[in-house]
């Protein structure tokens, strides 16, 4: 009887290890809620699949949607679009209304510029500056839920 | 990080609970991802946490050029123990907390300099 329990425990432990390795190194599912990426993502919530290889091998390009640790709160994940990578110069409107207040920002080495698709509701690099690349967790590839809006990004 | 750590190399044991539960304090030695190069890890001392104000000498020689820096929310100030040789927050600014990987607890190698930090 104890050998059965031990065998079951080993099977569960093996499954946990496989899931953990997949989650940490291959891909993750994230439920993303918030208005900052409207209309690309729903404000009420989407289940997204991220893959981690692009971030690990630094293949993130301008226009990709990524999930990252927030520079303001390490317990929070943010989902934004990459508008510029290191070495690029981006023209930023601090307020979406103020067209004549645009300023140029040079993205330093090892950083990216993250911005939400809805500039009026998003708190992003316009507020906290360029984000270090190492904070990126994964690149969004698929929207899985709601099922009628299944989409590959 | 001379003289705390050897320039020729030390084998250190880090623990991750302190970082995960945000129990990193001023004076701790931590290992973090470099904000300048995501493939590089850096080992520095935490001199200030979010909300603190730190007086920074951009150049160790220039005593009269000190400036006060307020550490923003979610960031820490990392600085090496050897200010003349270290490239740290004096150069790239406060570091987001989420970049921290672990807190250094033990030096295991060289064996004659075994130490608990």
From TrEMBL, chain A:
Biological process according to GO: protein processing involved in protein targeting to mitochondrion; signal peptide processing
GO CC aspect terms: mitochondrial inner membrane peptidase complex
Membrane-crossing segments per the record: none
Keywords assigned: Hydrolase, Membrane, Mitochondrion, Mitochondrion inner membrane
Molecular function, one GO term: serine-type endopeptidase activity
Active site: 36, 80
Domain Peptidase S26 intervals: 12-145
CDD domains reported for this sequence: S26_SPase_I (cd06530)
Signal sequence range: none
Cellular localisation: Mitochondrion inner membrane
InterPro entries according to UniProt: LexA/Signal_pep-like_sf, Mito_IMP1_subunit, Pept_S26A_signal_pept_1, Peptidase_S26
Top-rank lineage group of the source organism: Eukaryota
Protein family: Belongs to the peptidase S26 family. IMP1 subfamily.
PANTHER family in the record: MITOCHONDRIAL INNER MEMBRANE PROTEASE SUBUNIT 1, PROTEASE FAMILY S26 MITOCHONDRIAL INNER MEMBRANE PROTEASE-RELATED
Descriptive protein name: Peptidase S26 domain-containing protein
Organism: Ceratopteris richardii (Triangle waterfern)
Automatic annotation (TrEMBL), chain B:
Entry's Gene Ontology molecular function annotations: serine-type endopeptidase activity
The keyword Hydrolase appears for this protein: yes
InterPro entries: LexA/Signal_pep-like_sf, Mito_IMP1_subunit, Pept_S26A_signal_pept_1, Peptidase_S26
GO biological process, one term: protein processing involved in protein targeting to mitochondrion
Entry keyword annotation includes Phosphoprotein: no
Residue intervals of the Peptidase S26 domain: 1-56, 67-109
Keywords of this entry: Hydrolase, Membrane, Mitochondrion, Mitochondrion inner membrane
One Pfam family linked to the record: Peptidase_S26
Entries under Gene3D superfamilies matching the protein: Umud Fragment, subunit A
GO CC annotations on file: mitochondrial inner membrane peptidase complex
Localization in the cell: Mitochondrion inner membrane
CDD domains, sorted: S26_SPase_I
Family: Belongs to the peptidase S26 family. IMP1 subfamily.
Protein name: Peptidase S26 domain-containing protein
Organism: Ceratopteris richardii
């Amino acid at each position: 009887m104890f050998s059965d329990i031990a065998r079951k425990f080993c099977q569960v432990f093996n499954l946990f290890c496989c899931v953990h390795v997949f989650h940490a190194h291959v891909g993750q599912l994230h439920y993303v809620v918030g208005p900052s990426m409207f209309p690309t993502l729903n404000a009420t919530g989407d289940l997204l699949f991220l893959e981690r290889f692009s971030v690990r091998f630094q293949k993130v390009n301008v226009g990709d949607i990524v999930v990252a640790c927030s520079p303001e709160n390490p317990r929070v994940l943010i989902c934004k679009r990459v508008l510029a990578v290191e070495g690029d110069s981006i023209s930023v409107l601090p307020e979406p209304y103020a067209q004549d207040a645009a300023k140029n920002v040079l993205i330093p080495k090892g950083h990216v510029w993250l911005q939400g698709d809805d500039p009026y509701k998003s708190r992003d690099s316009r507020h906290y500056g360029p984000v270090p690349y190492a904070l990126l967790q994964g690149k969004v590839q698929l929207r899985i839920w709601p099922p009628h809006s299944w989409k590959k990004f | 990080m001379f003289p705390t750590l050897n320039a020729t190399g030390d084998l250190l044991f880090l623990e991750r609970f302190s970082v995960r539960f945000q129990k990193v304090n001023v004076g701790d030695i931590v290992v973090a991802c470099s904000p300048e190069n995501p493939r590089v890890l850096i080992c520095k001392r935490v001199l200030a946490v979010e909300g603190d104000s730190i007086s920074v000498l951009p150049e160790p020689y220039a005593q009269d050029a000190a400036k006060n820096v307020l550490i923003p929310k979610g960031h820490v100030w990392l600085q090496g123990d050897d200010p003349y040789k270290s490239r740290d927050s004096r150069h790239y600014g406060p570091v987001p907390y989420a970049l921290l990987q672990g807190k250094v607890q033990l030096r295991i190698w060289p064996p004659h300099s075994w130490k608990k930090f």
